[in-house]
Structure formats: structure tokens, C-alpha cells
Amino acid sequence: MTDVNKNTMEMEEDTQKGRFLTFSLGKESYGIEIKYVIEIIGLQAITEIPELPEYVKGIINLRGKIIPVMDVRLRFKKEPREYNDRTCVIVIDIKDVSIGLIIDSVSEVLTIPEEDIVEPPKMNKGFNNRYIKKIGKVGNDVKLLLDCEKLLSEDELEDLSEVL
Amino acid sequence: MKKVLIIDDAAFMRMSIKMMLEKNGFEVVGEAEDGIEGVKKYKKLKPDIVTMDITMPTMTGLEALINIKEFDPQAKIVMVSAMGQENMVREAIMQGANTFIVKPFKEEHIVEILNKILAI
Amino acid sequence: MVKVSGRNTNEPMLDMFIFETSQLIEQLEQSILSSEKSSCYTPTAINEIFRIMHTIKGSSAMMIFNNISTLAHHIEDLFYFLREEKPNNIDCSTLSDLVLEGVDFIKIEMEKIKNGDEADGEVSQLIERIKGYLSILKRTNISTGPVKDPEKVDTKGQRYYISQDKAKTSIYANAFKAVIYFEEGCEMENIRAYTIIHNLKDITEQIFYMPEDIIDNDDSVEIIRREGFKVYIKTDYSYEEMHKFFMQAIFLKDLELIQLENVDELKQFSTVKEAVVQKNPIKVPSLHEPDKRKKEASDKEINSTSMHQSIISVSVPKLDKLMDLVGEMVIAEAMVIQNPDLKGLELDNFQKAARQLNKITSDIQDMVMSIRMVPLSTTFHKMHRIVRDMCKKLDKEVQLEIIGEETEVDKNIIEHISDPLMHLVRNAIDHGIESTEDREMRGKSPSGRITLEAKNAGSDVLIILKDDGKGLSREKILMKAREQGLLYRSEDDMSDKEVLNLILIPGFSTKDGISEFSGRGVGMDVVTRNIEAVGGSVSVDSILNNGTTITLKIPLTLAIIDGMNIRVGNSCYTLPTISIKESFRPKEGDIITDPDGNEMIMVRGQCYSILRLHEVYKIKNSSTSIFNGIIIMVEHDDKTLCIFADELLGQQQVVVKALPKYIQNFKKIKGLAGCTLLGDGSISLILDITGLINN
């Protein structure tokens, strides 16, 4: 029985491999590994929480579960933009932390073969780069593949540097 | 489905045995946490087979075995023992226990034992 | 709670293992401590400890926690000896030390297991010492007779379920030789062989087997494993029948069965041993007349057994989940009953049904709350061990008295008060209680006394720790505070109570030398912080030379509070109703502003500072004129604050939810205790009064 579980889990992993949910933020198109994505919801009422970085917009009630939402635009230090009816929240789950990512609009789910995924160019101090794990090529388009863990975890480092 | 009664004072052991057996098509009809309760439940539930811990409070597995065998000489009983209990196990066999298993044991072993005893 | 990669089907088993073993360990500890107190191990206690170790041995072996299992095995051996030989010269204190060390080891391993780490503790040294202790005991107690084998049972005169009338025929038609191999790892091969012989006795009396001494010689196990178990029999059964018989053997790996044409092979056994079947009937312990020895030992257990049966254990995460669901149900109910679609409709039957639903939901809520309540007894009884260890190390004498251990508080809170309480008890013994000589000099009883009491006080529980030690000296506290630069006010202005409370401030520690047990640089301030973290408070009372009393006030539960919802701009906040003293609209002349711009308000001749929530939390669209809003006066621990908000929205019971971890990771947001869901599905932030006041 244990083996069966393991097999189906492996199969799931397999079917999820190389699959990305793509979304747009201004002109750029980003991709996020499908295994992190729980669901996509429309924008809903956000309760603001004081004393947090600007990009953490607050918390929302997702069917009784309270999850934080982050404005990815602000996280990437881009210009803020009014939310409209295309604005979406992608709920992701990383290491048992659920968080909603506010983005301009969701595009589609794509399979990007391994050979079309390349390392991002090395830049000495381009901070824009640090949330990008890889770059995927789809036809003539380029998808910036997000490093979700960094999206969440680098905050602590940032906080530290603010203190110092 | 074959009906099993589990007599053991350790909740963990009852749960372990129960999970192992239920996965393999047995029906655990009852659990008892000491000998007295075990004998009572045997009489009430009439299981096809019993797994019986040896060390228990208020009435040991050996005493419960004797009581059950007196009530039903055909009762099928598997003793659950641990290393160091050789003499108790031998005594249990003398008293009519069908066989025994030694902790720690694997799922396939307890299943095999029960099936074999039930086939007799 | 527990994270182990790759465990799925085993999860409930591991949870049960942790649950049951932890319980047994606690029971064991209590048993040892009370035995030590009465400086003797009663047969009941010895038997109990033996049984607990036996159970732990079995369970941990099943879970492949081998070091725990091995340790339990050796302690079991030790108590087996004590139980069977009843040596009268045992060194109680050494025995307790050894077993408690074992208890501690298992506790540490259990902690590792809970955290999903490998239980890899080193135990061989402890085992060697247990073995050493046992062998000394054995050596000094040989006079009491030969040491029996473990688990030996008196076999005399017991009943055998074997057909008894075989003796009449001795001339059998066939002879067989069988060599039996058992599966590897089936254990106790000698007893398996014995089982076969035992079953053969139904078929024939002429049985010979190799090795012969399957019961008494431990080496026979090895021989059977290596060479198989050889059986020679004469019987009327056919080859097929014998084959079928042997195939029924449990854990049979291989069988060689040969029909012997020539019975010579049988004759090589010089001494023909015929299996002797005992015929004397025996007395079977009856269900209705348990013998006296058993009865004494078990009377109490029967009671607890029958109680046990109606109790099941539930994992705390499940309860938390249930609590969440009930909270959601309350919200969903409000959304249905107050649905805007119903506006203006005459719905008599609906309203009736709605009232019924409302009653049931609130009953469920109460019930779930009560499920989460657990008595403080376990936490309190842990202190016995602390007292014992401390007294031993510091060479003091202390009696611990426990009152009101049945008082219940929420499971989550219990987890938070255990450590502070331990710290307080250590402090009391280390710093409070004097040495025996000192006490006698002062005319006190040589043995100190610590009382640990719990009682209900409204929606709070008070935990009072009282010692009859030397008490706290105002002068010493002031001196220390001065040295540490903790004094900000004139000493003469401070009341005794204020001085005593100085010991709760971070950086204060009255003892210069840091002892092993308390005052490791951290002190009472840690206790205060932990207690405040669950919304409680600490206060100190002391009379010099008479003793110190420390009172912890903790809320019954964290999960549901009576809350007052208030509006600030577009945001909703919730205040715990319990801390609200009053609310009012301020009048012009009441407001005072000091040169720094701090606002204050005069109420009945007293001056209180005003906290504008919209300023603190930078909320837009709220009324800024103090005369358009409302002042809510809140109080915590004799401190008062006036909170300014736009309006009161109403009072309701709210389910407290923690803020998401991600948010908490940024920093502890001042003045926020959590959040809750309102009837319309929106979120309200719960204000933490203590945080706001101390801000």
C-alpha cells in the first residue's frame, strides 16, 4: 500500500514536471512551477496589517483560512498599478506556507521542455535577477521562471540589512 | 471476513495489529486491554481468532488463555510475546495456544500466522 | 506537528506510539518519585514499573527505535529481578537515580522522534550501569535461593488440553523422520520446535527429537537455526497425513519428511524418551474469583480501566481543525441568517428555525471548547521531579504540596506555562528555601514547604506558587536594581509591591553566583514574557523571612473571546470585552495636550493618555477630530489606556486565529493578538491590550 502511494505520488510529480503557470506583470511574462500553485482567485477584500513592508498588502479570508497576500509588482520594485478585473491572486504553497501573489493577469499553463530552459544571465548586482531561477523559451517568447522560495525567504535577509 | 479479537494492554500494539490486519482483509471485531475484559469479549463476540498479549494487568494473557480455552476448547489463540518470555510462551502452548509471534514482528508475518491457523 | 518524510500510513501509529509512551513515562516517573519518597518500592510499584518497561520495550521495538527498546529491556530485567527475588537490601536512591536517568533518556529520544529527528541517543553506558547494578544485587542476594529464569511460570498442577488416552496403543505402523527449518527472524525457534512436539502428542507418544534440550538450553536455538529441527516419530498416520501436519507449522521455511523403512535409525537414541503426558487436573484461575494477590494489586486498576474505555485520544491538530470549523460554522450561520436577500420578508418559520440553529451552534461551540480543556495535574506533577532533583543537588529538604490540580485550562495554554512554572519552582528552592541549618536557626521546621495551587477566578485561572523561605528583601532588590541601572524613580516613592515587581524586569537577577538550576542569565523576566504571551500576568508578594508568593494569572482559553468590534476608517478591530472598562464620547474640556503633543484625558479627576488607533496604524478615511469618535477605556494589570476609534460596532464572541506565519516572521507587530473572521466573511484584527499599554 505504501508503495502504491509512493507510485502515484511519483506519477504526479512526473506529470507536473516542466509545467508552469504563466502570468504577466507589465510587459514581462513570468512562469511559476505548477506544483506550488494551489488555486487562482479573483481579487477580494484585503485586510491591511500595519507595520509591514509595502509589498505585503495584508491578509485575505480564503474560505476560512487566513493567508497573506503579496503584490508581486511591488515586490519587484516596479511601479504600482491600479487593480482591475483582470488582476488575479495566485495562491501558492511553499513548505507549508500559503501565500497569495497579486499579479496583473494569468496567461496559461505551459509545458516547457528541459532543453528550452536556460540559466539566467549572470549580473553582478541586478537585484531584479535574484527571484528568477531559470529562463524558459517558448517560441519567440521568453518566460522568466520564478524562484518561489526566494520570493518568500529573502525577506528576513532584507529585514536584517534594514536593521544594520 | 474472519473476525479477530485483539487483547493487549498497550494501545499502540492494539492499533498496530489492527491496522496490519485490517489492511489484509481481517475484521477486528473487538479490542480488550486486559485479560478479564478479553475473556468477556471473547464470550460475547465469538471471534474466529484471538491475538493475546502475555503481560497484562489484572489478568495475564496466560490466565485469559486458560479461561477462554475452558469456555471454548476450539478457540484459536495466537500469543503475542517478547524476547525473554520463552517460558511463558511454552506454558501458553501447553495450555492450548495455537502459536505465538515475537515482538517486533512484520505485517506479513502476523498475517501469515493468522491465515495458517485459521486454515486448520 | 510531526514531520517525517515518507511516512504516511504509519502516521497514526507513530502518533499513538508517542502518545502512549509519553503517558507511560509520566506514570513511571510518578511511580518512582512516590516510591522514593516512601523510601521503598512496594510490590505494586515494582510490578507497575516492570509492566510499563515491558510495554515500552515492545512498542519501541515495533517502531524500530532500538535504543529505547534495549534500554527498556534492561530496566525490565532489573525490575523482574526485584519482583521475583524481593531483595531487601536495595539502595532505593541509586535505583531511583538509575531509572530516572532511563526516563530522561527516553524523554529526550521521544522529543527527537516528535520533531522528526532520528532517535540516535547513546545509551550503552547507562545500560552497562543498569547491568552492573543488577549483578551486584544478584550477588548480594544469592542466599534467597537460586535465581529463576525470567518469566518462569510455576507449571505444577495446571491443566493441559491434550487428549489424555494415548497410552493404550504402543504399536505403530509407520516411522518418519522430519527435518524442519524455520524462517529466519521468526525468533524463539526452540519454542516453535516445542510447539510442534506439543501438537505431535495428539498423534503419537513415540517422539524423539534433536536437539533434545529445546527448552533449557539456549544454544538449541542456534542449532535449530543452523541444522534444522529433527524429529523421529512412530505413528499410524500415513505419509500424506504427516506431511499435512508438518506443513501447518508456523514460520515453516523448509520441510524434509522421510518415511523410515528401517526403524534402526530410531534405535540410535539410547535412552528412549517418551513424551509424558501429565494427567493431574489443575486449578484454573477463575474469572470470578481472582486470587487474593491479584485482587489487591488490581482493585485500583479495574476502576481506571473501566474509566479508560469511555475515553479516546484525539490529536491536538484535529481539535484545532474542529475549532476552526466551528468558527467557520458560526460565521456561515450569520451569513445565512443575516443574508441581505432576506431583507423585508416575513419569515416566521425561518426565524424560528434560525433561532434553533443558533442555539445548537453555540452549544457545539461550548462543547468543543470544553473538549480542549485539560487539567493542570500533569504539569503540576512534573514539579515533583524538579523538587527531587533540586533537593538532592542542593542538599535541601522541601515538601511540595499540590492543591487544585484538577483545575482545567486550554490545551494550548498548558503548553506555555510548563516551562515558566518549572523555572519558578527552581527559583523557589534555589533562592527561596534556606538550608536546613538556617531554617532551624530561625526556628522554622527543617524541611521547607512549597505550595502549588490552581484555582478558577472568573475567566482566568490563578496559579499560585508559595514558599516559606527567606522572602525578598526590599533593600536588596533596590540595591540590585540600582547596580543594574534599572531604577528610574525615586526609591522612596515606590510601594513595596512596585519594588517587588522589579524582579520581573529584564536584566534583574538577585543571586550573584549563577547556580546550575536557575538564574542562567535569564530570570523572572522570561517567566513574565512567557505568561504574557498567552495573555496572562505575573505578580509577586513577599514577606521577609516568611516566604514569597508568585501568582500567575492566565486566561482559561485563547481560542474564543468575547470581543467588542470597533471601526477605524474602513478597518474593523476587535477588543477583548474583558479589558474594556467603559466607553464614552469625550467633551471639549476633557482633553489635555502636553508640550510633546501627547494627548491625555481627565476622567473623574484621573488623567489617562489617549491612543489614536488611526495614527498608530496609519489608517486613512477615519475621523481625526476627537469629538466625532469614541473613547474606549481599557485596563490591564492596573494600567489604563484610552483608545480612540470611530465607532463601536457591537459585541460578539470571536474565534481567535493566529496571523499567518509569513506575517509573524517579519516581526512581532505591536498590539496585535491575532485576527478573527466576522459574520460577513471579512477579517478583523484583534488588539492586544497589554502590547498597546506597554507601548
TrEMBL record, chain A:
<protein>
    <submittedName>
        <fullName>Purine-binding chemotaxis protein CheW</fullName>
    </submittedName>
</protein>
<dbReference type="InterPro" id="IPR002545">
    <property type="entry name" value="CheW-lke_dom"/>
</dbReference>
<dbReference type="GO" id="GO:0006935">
    <property type="term" value="P:chemotaxis"/>
</dbReference>
<dbReference type="InterPro" id="IPR036061">
    <property type="entry name" value="CheW-like_dom_sf"/>
</dbReference>
<feature type="domain" description="CheW-like">
    <location>
        <begin position="17"/>
        <end position="157"/>
    </location>
</feature>
<dbReference type="GO" id="GO:0007165">
    <property type="term" value="P:signal transduction"/>
</dbReference>
<dbReference type="GO" id="GO:0005829">
    <property type="term" value="C:cytosol"/>
</dbReference>
<dbReference type="Pfam" id="PF01584">
    <property type="entry name" value="CheW"/>
</dbReference>
<dbReference type="InterPro" id="IPR039315">
    <property type="entry name" value="CheW"/>
</dbReference>
UniProtKB/TrEMBL annotation, chain B:
<dbReference type="InterPro" id="IPR052048">
    <property type="entry name" value="ST_Response_Regulator"/>
</dbReference>
<dbReference type="InterPro" id="IPR001789">
    <property type="entry name" value="Sig_transdc_resp-reg_receiver"/>
</dbReference>
<protein>
    <recommendedName>
        <fullName>Stage 0 sporulation protein A homolog</fullName>
    </recommendedName>
</protein>
<dbReference type="InterPro" id="IPR011006">
    <property type="entry name" value="CheY-like_superfamily"/>
</dbReference>
<dbReference type="Pfam" id="PF00072">
    <property type="entry name" value="Response_reg"/>
</dbReference>
<comment type="function">
    <text>May play the central regulatory role in sporulation. It may be an element of the effector pathway responsible for the activation of sporulation genes in response to nutritional stress. Spo0A may act in concert with spo0H (a sigma factor) to control the expression of some genes that are critical to the sporulation process.</text>
</comment>
<feature type="domain" description="Response regulatory">
    <location>
        <begin position="3"/>
        <end position="118"/>
    </location>
</feature>
<feature type="modified residue" description="4-aspartylphosphate">
    <location>
        <position position="53"/>
    </location>
</feature>
<keyword id="KW-0597">Phosphoprotein</keyword>
<dbReference type="GO" id="GO:0000160">
    <property type="term" value="P:phosphorelay signal transduction system"/>
</dbReference>
Automatic annotation (TrEMBL), chain C:
<keyword id="KW-0067">ATP-binding</keyword>
<dbReference type="InterPro" id="IPR037052">
    <property type="entry name" value="CheA-like_P2_sf"/>
</dbReference>
<feature type="compositionally biased region" description="Basic and acidic residues">
    <location>
        <begin position="286"/>
        <end position="302"/>
    </location>
</feature>
<feature type="domain" description="HPt">
    <location>
        <begin position="6"/>
        <end position="113"/>
    </location>
</feature>
<feature type="modified residue" description="Phosphohistidine">
    <location>
        <position position="54"/>
    </location>
</feature>
<feature type="domain" description="CheW-like">
    <location>
        <begin position="560"/>
        <end position="695"/>
    </location>
</feature>
<dbReference type="GO" id="GO:0000155">
    <property type="term" value="F:phosphorelay sensor kinase activity"/>
</dbReference>
<keyword id="KW-0902">Two-component regulatory system</keyword>
<dbReference type="Pfam" id="PF01627">
    <property type="entry name" value="Hpt"/>
</dbReference>
<dbReference type="GO" id="GO:0005737">
    <property type="term" value="C:cytoplasm"/>
</dbReference>
<dbReference type="InterPro" id="IPR005467">
    <property type="entry name" value="His_kinase_dom"/>
</dbReference>
<feature type="region of interest" description="Disordered">
    <location>
        <begin position="283"/>
        <end position="304"/>
    </location>
</feature>
<dbReference type="InterPro" id="IPR036890">
    <property type="entry name" value="HATPase_C_sf"/>
</dbReference>
<keyword id="KW-0547">Nucleotide-binding</keyword>
<dbReference type="GO" id="GO:0006935">
    <property type="term" value="P:chemotaxis"/>
</dbReference>
